[in-house]
From TrEMBL, chain A:
Name this protein carries in UniProt: Carbon-monoxide dehydrogenase small subunit
Organismal lineage: Bacteria, Pseudomonadati, Pseudomonadota, Alphaproteobacteria, Hyphomicrobiales
Species of the source: Bradyrhizobium huanghuaihaiense
Superkingdom of origin: Bacteria
GO molecular function: 2 iron, 2 sulfur cluster binding; metal ion binding; oxidoreductase activity
Keywords attached to this entry: 2Fe-2S, Iron, Iron-sulfur, Metal-binding, Oxidoreductase
Domain 2Fe-2S ferredoxin-type intervals: 5-81
PANTHER family in the cross-refs: OXIDOREDUCTASE WITH IRON-SULFUR SUBUNIT, XANTHINE DEHYDROGENASE IRON-SULFUR-BINDING SUBUNIT XDHC-RELATED
Pfam family, one: Fer2_2
CDD domains: fer2 (cd00207)
Automatic annotation (TrEMBL), chain B:
A Pfam family: MoCoBD_2
Transmembrane segments: none
Protein known as: Carbon-monoxide dehydrogenase large subunit
InterPro entries listed in its UniProt record: Ald_Oxase/Xan_DH_a/b, Ald_Oxase/Xan_DH_a/b_sf, Ald_Oxase/xanthine_DH-like, AldOxase/xan_DH_MoCoBD1, AldOxase/xan_DH_MoCoBD2, AldOxase/xan_DH_Mopterin-bd_sf
Keywords: Molybdenum, Oxidoreductase
Gene Ontology MF terms in the entry: iron ion binding; oxidoreductase activity
SMART domains: Ald_Xan_dh_C
Length: 161, 797
């Protein structure tokens, strides 16, 4: 199990072929092999949420998943969501509300927030707080982040109405 | 305010049209971070870069008998295995003392332990390999023989004759002691209607920056120059220390600080493993990268607090506080940290206890002892949470004793808002504080009377809610009194250079740094406002010792107050220089001209006379068209340091509204309020978010965060799952209000705001929990307030 394994992954819409060691986790694959450094590593044991990415539409902790497990899957990172414009409104709300300071948790936080807003279009503050409880932020105290997500949810509903 | 625009020498930034001062504007650098395009040190790669992983001691105290690295050296990808002895040829050891902390002692500390390890986690060898994974594989193959020594872990017995002395050359385990006796304390206690005592216990905790400490050190053997890429709050301090211990001149060391994933004081120090990384780059003549993993972050990032403080307060029946007395004990690990020392926190506790109140009777003792645990040092709000929790806990105890409302006893004892300038019994000088205005404002914000009624009504239903109040003072804008006078090469001044570029935009280089507080934004706001250009035309460069003026950096709530004033003064000069040239070009006088909205305009009618890009074109490309003898100066530099007051004290008050489940011991934070006074507010949103973030770090200390050591000095919860930090689901909304008393020492009038939230949060929560538990006749003076602590106090477990 120590020889490199061939994998094929779609990352942000581009097909990537690679040979990776079985022990390589998805976060290291994204950061070190593909240079997608927007995915951050805060704890490397699945608690802090900084490495959150989307695999097959679901958010996962990329430090807890092996690169080989992503074989055949579609992986989306903060770079992909930024370039596609999918979360442009959420990013603008974070900027306007200063819902980030050092920015290290932010890519994972945006991933988790977008995940919530796709499931629940009108989350209450408590629901937002609950959904983000797997994403640590040491700078903001969360209040501004909750505000920004709440604002985005309202704006999206108004857009739909 | 009157307009004094006609005289640029007497310009007030607050009077300018289109001023950004006091306005919420988004930080200019956010999109990069929002799109995952930040540049953190952990993201960096350089050609020929190798990775270092440290083998760390599993023992709290042991002799290193032998190290066998032969097998590790044969592992694939391994470039070198370097022991402490080998590295000692490249980098010299250090001693973390400062001369103004009289009697402070510590032992020489090496980048990598040489023949003895003094805490679990101290580096024993460096393994350098082509990848971090390869280095981690090789670590397992380094054989170290240790002889375990008795570990000193309990600070309470560290000074007992029976306890081993950690550093024989020091004679005992006492690092520092300070005694203060002001007024007539014994007399005051004797004449008091009531005297109350308690022992306050503070858990050892740490900063948990989400990005661990990271360094890339690049030694260029051809240039004989070391470039250090590091997430640091103080680049020039790192430059000085690295040069000193590597035998280089400062000019041979460049420190570059890009994006920093959280700092909070954790990254204002220089750690042994960082020193080792600089030395390894020099030894191996290639770039070396060190990124701490989370386990080693818990074991090596400085810890803080860990105090046991006995307190005593005297009070009269009318609520007058007659005296405070404290006896503080803290354990700092085996070494005083370098270069800021580990005596500062205890020293601050002595300085700050009783600080908001009028009594002149105050006695204090603080003792700082060595132990075989990780090092402790300055973390956000150094000493303030201890001093505030002790003071405010005692004030509430006194109020309870005489049956007075906690707000009322504070009204009767806080220093009056018109009593300034004045000084505290410990000698702190206050220029202008606003305790009473702040208290009045928070009482209104929280609707205190209604909350009390709600509390009483819920009490009947068996729901136990409590209100906690905590007034506080905060040290900001430190002068040379903080470190410089003690011999540390840590600058208290900051410098800013501003220049007009060839298209009429402005480039600003400042010595303060950015770790997310908004240093870039506040600098651009000041420069844009004073000069009269829009913020999108101001580019701020910081965090590079080759590129910026010399200065302290961003720590101790000093960036806005000191770096901001330097930016203001530099921009005033640039503005004058531009108007001088404009007057020549326009055949006018500087007094008749102003700069507004990126153009030189008439003061009289506001008519636009010349755009700044056109002026810049003439200055840089057609100076031949200017009259003889006219030499434009499109760049200006100014430095600033406070001189009148050693520190610009701020003040404020916090309030917590909590519910305690007396069956489970869980505390639910329902709401938190803060009113604080940081003087001139440059960007209200940034100030509020500094406060909120600071509060939540204080709430973590109040309820969750604790480094749990066993009696052999093993840290038993060194991971994110077992060491709890605040999560969004358990944090309250936090309302922030302000009172504004600008410092008159600077033209800007700004004091610091970065630590106020942390200073008082735990005190407010502890007071609220005790208020909730009042019917049970219990008083808890220990944090974190875990379910175990609460249920034990209630006698339920």
């Amino acid at each position: 199990m120590t020889a490199p394994v061939a994998i094929s992954v779609t990352v942000n819409g581009e097909r990537v072929e690679a040979h990776v060691l079985p022990r390589l986790n998805l976060a290291d694959f994204l950061r070190e092999h593909l240079k997608l450094t927007g995915t951050h590593l805060g704890c490397e044991h699945g608690v802090c949420g900084a490495c959150t990415v989307r695999v097959g539409g679901e958010i996962v902790r990329s430090c807890l998943m092996l690169a080989v497990q992503a074989n055949g899957a579609a992986v989306e990172t903060i770079e992909g969501l930024s370039d596609s414009g999918e979360i442009a409104d959420l990013q603008a709300a974070f900027r306007d509300r200063n819902a980030l300071q050092c920015g290290f948790c932010t890519p994972g936080m945006l991933m988790a927030a977008q995940d919530l807003l796709r499931e629940n279009r009108t989350p209450a503050r408590e629901e937002i707080r609950e959904h983000l409880s797997g994403n640590y932020c040491r700078c903001t105290g969360y209040h501004a982040i909750i505000d920004a997500i709440e604002t985005t949810a309202r704006a999206r509903m108004e857009l739909k109405a | 305010m009157s307009s004094i625009r006609s005289n640029p020498q007497r310009l007030s930034v607050l009077d300018r049209p289109n001023s950004y001062i006091g306005k919420t504007v988004p930080r200019p650098n956010l999109d990069r971070l929002l799109q995952g395009r930040g540049s953190y040190v952990s993201d960096m790669e350089l050609p020929r870069m190798a990775h270092v992983v440290f083998l760390r001691s599993p023992y709290a105290h042991a002799e290193i008998v032998s190290i066998d690295a032969a097998a590790a050296r044969r592992m694939p990808g391994v470039i070198a295995v370097v022991t402490g002895k080998e590295l000692a040829d490249v980098i010299t050891p250090w001693i973390g003392v400062l001369s103004h902390l009289k009697g402070l002692k510590s032992a020489p500390q090496s980048a990598i332990a040489v023949d003895r390890v003094c805490w679990q986690g101290e580096a024993v060898a460096a393994i350098v390999a082509t990848s971090r994974a390869a280095a981690e594989d090789a670590v397992e193959h380094v054989g170290v023989e240790y002889r375990e020594l008795e570990a000193v872990t309990d600070m309470r017995t560290a000074l007992d004759p029976a306890t081993p002395v950690i550093h024989a050359s020091l004679g005992d385990n006492l690092a520092f002691e300070r005694i203060l006796d002001a007024g007539a304390v014994d007399q005051a206690f004797a004449g008091s209607d009531a005297v109350v005592e308690a022992e306050f216990i503070f858990g050892r905790h740490t900063g948990v920056t989400l990005e661990p400490r990271s360094v890339v050190a690049d030694w260029d053997a051809a240039e004989a120059r070391l470039t250090i890429y590091q997430g640091t709050q103080a680049p020039h301090m790192v430059q000085n220390i690295a040069a000193l211990h590597l035998g280089l001149r400062e000019a041979q060391v460049r420190v570059v600080c890009k994006d920093v994933g959280g700092s909070f004081g954790i990254k204002v120090h220089i750690y042994a493993d960082e020193m080792a990384t600089y030395a390894l780059a020099k030894l191996l003549r290639r770039p070396i990268k060190f990124v701490a993993d989370r386990v080693e972050s818990f074991n090596t990032d400085i810890h803080a607090r860990d105090h046991r403080c006995k307190g005593k307060i005297g009070v009269q029946r009318d609520g007058t506080i007659t005296a405070f007395e404290i006896d503080d004990l803290t354990g700092i690990g085996p070494y005083s940290m370098y270069p800021r020392t580990s005596a500062i926190e205890a020293n601050q506790v002595v300085n700050l206890v009783g600080g908001p109140y009028t009594t002149k009777n105050y006695r204090a003792r603080a003792r700082v002892v060595f132990q075989n645990k990780n090092v402790m040092c300055q973390y956000r709000a150094v000493g303030h949470p201890i001093a505030c929790s002790v003071t405010e806990g005692l004030v509430d105890l006194a109020a309870m004793k005489i049956g007075m409302d906690p707000v009322e006893i504070r009204r009767r004892n806080l220093i009056a808002d018109d009593a300034y300038p004045c000084a505290s019994p410990s000698g702190l000088r206050f220029e202008q504080l606003s305790h009473h205005a702040s208290l009045a404002k928070i009482v209104e914000m929280m609707n205190y009377e209604a909350l009390r009624a709600e509390q009483a009504a819920l009490r009947k239903q068996g729901i136990h809610r409590g209100i906690g109040i905590a007034s506080f003072i905060e040290v900001t804008n430190p002068s040379a009194a903080f470190y410089g006078v003690g011999g540390a090469k840590i600058s208290s001044q900051d410098g800013v250079a501003v220049r007009l570029d060839a298209q009429g935009s402005v480039i600003c280089q400042t010595s303060i740094t950015e770790q997310g507080q908004g240093s870039q934004s506040l600098t651009a706001q000041i420069v844009g406002s004073v000069l009269g250009v829009s913020m999108d035309r101001v580019r701020v460069i910081l965090g590079d010792t080759d590129m910026t003026p010399y200065g302290g950096g961003t720590w101790a709530s000093r960036g806005a107050g000191i770096g901001g004033e330097a930016a203001l003064q530099a921009t005033k000069i640039l503005r004058k220089n531009i108007l001088d040239v404009a007057a020549v070009i326009l055949q006018s006088t500087p007094a008749e001209l102003d700069i507004i909205d990126n153009a030189v305009v008439n003061v009289s009618d506001g008519a636009r006379r010349i755009e700044l890009d056109e002026l810049a074109r003439i200055v840089y490309f057609r100076p031949d068209t200017l009259p003889p003898g006219i030499q434009p100066e499109p760049m200006a530099t100014r430095h600033y340091v406070p001189r009148d007051y050693p520190f610009a004290f701020t003040n404020g008050v916090q309030a917590a509204w909590v519910e305690v489940d007396t069956d489970t011991g869980f505390v639910k934070l329902l709401k938190h309020w803060v009113v604080e006074d940081c003087g001139t507010i440059i960007n209200p949103q940034l100030v509020d978010e500094q406060i909120r973030g600071g509060v939540v770090q204080g709430l973590g200390a109040a309820l969750f965060e604790k480094c749990v050591y066993d009696d052999r000095g093993q840290l038993t919860n060194a991971n994110m799952a077992d060491y709890l930090v605040p999560m969004s689901g358990e944090m309250p909304d936090i309302d922030v209000g302000h009172v504004v008393s600008p410092t008159r020492e600077s033209e800007l009038g700004a004091k610091g705001a970065g630590e106020a939230g942390t200073a008082g949060a735990a005190a407010a929560v502890a007071n609220a929990v005790n208020d909730a538990l009042k019917p049970f006749g219990t008083m808890i003076t220990e944090i974190p307030l875990t379910p175990q602590v609460i249920l034990s106090a209630l006698g339920r477990i």
